[in-house]
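Researcher: Sequence recovery benchmark, item below. Answer with residues only.
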C-alpha cells in the first residue's frame, strides 16, 4: 500500500512501469558492503598479514568504510595449548573445545589476534573496531549438540547476527573486525567457525546492503588441480558446480566452502569470491579468483 501510494499517476504510462522504476531506485541506492574472511595461513605469517592489512585498509578507505573483516585463529592457539600441556582434539577438522581450550581460544582469537589486526589497520589510517560475538550482542549462538559419540564441547552454532549494530557502525564508516568467539546470552562464550561467521554476517547484512562475500586465503581460487595455482576456475554457477562435483574435479576440502557460498547467494548475498589474499583489490573488483554466482 505504501509503494502504491508513492507512485505517480496521470503521465500516460502504466503503474507497473513506475513500480519497477521505484524498486530499481531502492536497489541502486544500496551501499556496497564487502564481508571478507582472512585465512589462517595468512594470520600465521606476519609479513603476509601486514601486507594484506595494508591492502585491506586502502580498500576500506576507498570504499568509505563498508568492509567487515572476519578472522580465525591460525595455529597460535594450538601452539599455546601445547606449551601449557592442554591436549587438543580434532574431529573431521573441527576442534573439540573443552573448558581449558575455550580460555585459550578466547584469549588468542578475541584478544591478541583481533586487537593486533585492529592496531595494524589503525596504523594504516583505517578506523577499525574489533568485536567478539558477545560485544554488543553482535552474534548470538547456541552450544552445538553432540552428534552420536562426538561432543564438540563449547562450540557454537549461530542463531542470529545483530544487523542493527553492524549497520550503525558501518554508517559511521567504521571497519568491523569480527573474532570467531560468540555467546549464548546466558554468560557462556562459544568457539565458532570463522567461515560460518563470515557467511552468516554476509547473509544478515544483505537485507540492507548490496553484499559481496570474499574468502581470501593462500590459494588463487577454486582449483582443478589443488597443487597447481594456475588451474583456477574463474566462475562457477549451480550447473557447473554440479558437473564439476560429478566429475570429481573439485578438491574435496573445497566442496563445503562452495556449498556455503551457494547457501549465501540463496539468502540474498550478491556474489561470493574465493581467491588469494595478496590480490585483495583484484578480488574486490572481480578481476581475480573464482566468482560464484547463481547466474
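Model:
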Amino acid at each position: 500500500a505504501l509503494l502504491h501510494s508513492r507512485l505517480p499517476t496521470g503521465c500516460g504510462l502504466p503503474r507497473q512501469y513506475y513500480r519497477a522504476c521505484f524498486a530499481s531506485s531502492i536497489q541502486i541506492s544500496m551501499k556496497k558492503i564487502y564481508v571478507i574472511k582472512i585465512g589462517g595461513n595468512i594470520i600465521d605469517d606476519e609479513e603476509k598479514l601486514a601486507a594484506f592489512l595494508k591492502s585491506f585498509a586502502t580498500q576500506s578507505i576507498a570504499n568509505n568504510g563498508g568492509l567487515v573483516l572476519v578472522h580465525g585463529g591460525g595455529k597460535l592457539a594450538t601452539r599455546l595449548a601445547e606449551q601449557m600441556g592442554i591436549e587438543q582434539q580434532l574431529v573431521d577438522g573441527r576442534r573439540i573445545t573443552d573448558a581449558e581450550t575455550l580460555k585459550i581460544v578466547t584469549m588468542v582469537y578475541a584478544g591478541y589476534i583481533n586487537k593486533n589486526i585492529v592496531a595494524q589497520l589503525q596504523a594504516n589510517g583505517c578506523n577499525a573496531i574489533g568485536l567478539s560475538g558477545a560485544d554488543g550482542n553482535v552474534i548470538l549462538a547456541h552450544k552445538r549438540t553432540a552428534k552420536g559419540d562426538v561432543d564438540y564441547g563449547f562450540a557454537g552454532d549461530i542463531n542470529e547476527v545483530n544487523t542493527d549494530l553492524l549497520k550503525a557502525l558501518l554508517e559511521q564508516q567504521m571497519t568491523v573486525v569480527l573474532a570467531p568467539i560468540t555467546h549464548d546470552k546466558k554468560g557462556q562464550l562459544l568457539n565458532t567457525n570463522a567461515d560460518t561467521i563470515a557467511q552468516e554476517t554476509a547473509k544478515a547484512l544483505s537485507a540492507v546492503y548490496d553484499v559481496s562475500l570474499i574468502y581470501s586465503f593462500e590459494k588463487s581460487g577454486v582449483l582443478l588441480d589443488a597443487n597447481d595455482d594456475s588451474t583456477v576456475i574463474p566462475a562457477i554457477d549451480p550447473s557447473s558446480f554440479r558437473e564439476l562435483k560429478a566429475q570429481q574435479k573439485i578438491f574435496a576440502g573445497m566442496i563445503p566452502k562452495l556449498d556455503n557460498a551457494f547457501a549465501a547467494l540463496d539468502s540474498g548475498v550478491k556474489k561470493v569470491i574465493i581467491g588469494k589474499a595478496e590480490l585483495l583489490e583484484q578480488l574486490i573488483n572481480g578481476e581475480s579468483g573464482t566468482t560464484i554466482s547463481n547466474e
